[in-house]
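Contributing new records

If you add data, match the layout below exactly. Sequence lines come first and carry their own label; structure lines follow with theirs. Keep one chain per record. Anything else will be rejected by the validation script.
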Amino acid sequence: MNLIANVDNQWAIGKGGKLLVRIPADMKFFRETTTGKVVVMGRKTLEGLPNGQPLKDRTNIVLTRDRNFRVRGAKICFSADELREELKKYPSEDIYMIGGESIYRQFLDECDTAYITKDDYTYSADVFFPNLDELPEWKLVESSEEQTYFDLIYHFLKYEKRV
């Protein structure tokens, strides 16, 4: 399974239920990488998407404890075990954890690849991605050339879990 996120220098991913920054090239990378695949998210991440609706051209799976939660166009799971059972239906390499923080932390050990867009900036934030640079089981295997969006410098990174 895969993880995909945009993080800042402190591995922050959001504040107040919103992304910290929207970089067009990062959004394009996300769209191209996940289209036709399975995206797994928490309820708050879904609610933060445009119009709070599932992403088109993907299999959307939402994990929530709210047993009354329903949304058209997404499979709803009410426990991590139920989600794991649902994910057995799909090839592991086609599954992308897309947030938020609790989803990333719960499934980090079950993933083997992480696609990280790392911004050279520190935002005010309240949710964070696990810092892969501090976890010995994760190794940075690819880094893009420096990218810029106005005055923001960022890199596309790929991490893999050491075997």
